[in-house]
Amino acid sequence: MAKLMETAKEMTRESLPIKCLEAVILGIYLTNGQPSIERFPISFKTYFSGNYFHHVVLGIYCNGRYGSLGMSRRAELMDKPLTFRTLSDLIFDFEDSYKKYLHTVKKVKIGLYVPHEPHSFQPIEWKQLVLNVSKMLRADIRKELEKYARDMRMKILKPASAHSPTQVRSRGKSLSPRRRQASPPRRLGRRDKSPALPEKKVADLSTLNEVGYQIRI
Question: Where is the active site (predicted)?
Answer without folding.
Answer: 20, 55, 72
